[in-house]
Amino acid sequence: MSDRRLRVSAKRMLTSSICEIELRDPDGLALPPHPPGAHVSLDTPAGQRRSYSITNPAAEADRYVIAVHRQPGGRGGSVSVVDDTEIGSLLTVSAATSAFELVEAPRYLLVAGGVGITPIRSMLHHILGQGRSRVRLVYLTRTREETAYAEELDRPGLVDVVVLHHSAVAGRADLWQWLAEPDDETHVYCCGSTALMDDVRALTMHWRPSHIHFEDFAGVDALGGTSAPFTLTWEPTGGQIAVASDETALEALRRNGVRTSSSCESGTCGTCRLRLVAGETEHRDLVLTPPERESFVMPCVSRAAGAAITVAPL
Ligand code: FES
User: Fold this and answer.
1) Is the pLDDT of residue 56 over 70?
2) 274 lines ligand 1 (CB under 6 A)
3) Where is the FAD-binding FR-type domain (predicted)?
4) What distance in angstroms lies between residue 300's CA and the mean position of ligand 1's atoms?
5) Boundary-marking domain end, from 190, 215, 240
6) For residue 73, is pLDDT > 70?
């Protein structure tokens, strides 16, 4: 995935904590395509690598628009992107990539919570372009003031498509009304807080798993739970690397001079994917499908399930 320098060409607060940033090529060149649900990774001015979903329609080839939730209690990436950029700032940005792909389906149910509207909005625009009867969006926020794109989505023309629910006014949303009846023709796409995604997971246990899709940039804690040391063999050189209990496989590879790409470093973006050559793996990522887990591993979060694994570049 090649990086390029993009210019911040517009910037505005959508709510008191969600900032929309438009990125364009400084020379006006078209950007690599961004299918609905795609994201980019960028280097924040403070130097962290972070991933953000693209929210503008895929047909807009000359810009990526992202919405960043400024989280003062987070790891600092979002605060730097919002506070340390201005119109004209140049940022190093990856090409768009998608781990939250919109599959072809007769119908869609989109469920967004808070800033989770970002990739869902690009999906909504795409589907609406193909026929409005095919999609329903359930968009959950705490209040109207905390609702990004409220005016765009809460308008008469979309009254049969969009359900806006504000929990501070109406209490907890009852998602069962939309999920009770599994429907082979509908795919469900959900992006939001861990609690929302856990709810949707629990309420769709009776659906075909292949019809339920999640996006989670909150990521996973790479060293959470029990993390035992193990040996990682790097197949191209045969080098054996000891991975300590308090480091990730990715960190251990780098410590030993193996250069491998990464972005989110929380198991959500798919950038660090390596080929799994041998050994049993404790997969902790949110990217790989069960069949993919036979052949690939995400070293930013995943570890050996036993004493050793062998990995190789793709
Ligand atoms: S760096 Fe994003 S999944 Fe590993």
Assistant:
1) yes
2) no
3) 1-103
4) 6
5) 215
6) no
Q: Which atom of ligand 1 is nearest to the CA of 285?
A: 3
Q: For residue range 114-155, what is the model confidence (pLDDT) as tens digits? A: 999 999 999 999 999 887 678 999 999 999 999 999 999 999
Express as a percent the part of the chain with pLDDT over 90: 68
For ligand 1, whether the C-beta of 302 sits within 6 Å is: no
How many domains does the chain fold into?
A: 3
* Strand (E) or helix (H) holding 170: helix 167-170
CA angle 150, 152, 153 (to 5 degrees): 65
CA of 229 to the centre of ligand 1 (A): 20
Q: Which atom of ligand 1 is nearest to the CA of 265?
A: 1
297 SS3 class: strand
Question: In this structure, what CATH number is given to the domain that contains residue 266?
Answer: 3.10.20.30
- Burial group, residue 7, by CB count within 10 angstroms (0-12, 13-18, 19+): middle
271 lines ligand 1 (CB under 6 A): yes
Q: What 3-state class would DSSP assign to 134?
A: helix
Global confidence as pTM: 0.73
pLDDT at residue 276 greater than cutoff 90? yes
Per-residue model confidence (pLDDT) at position 107: 94
Same domain for 126 and 54, yes or no, is no
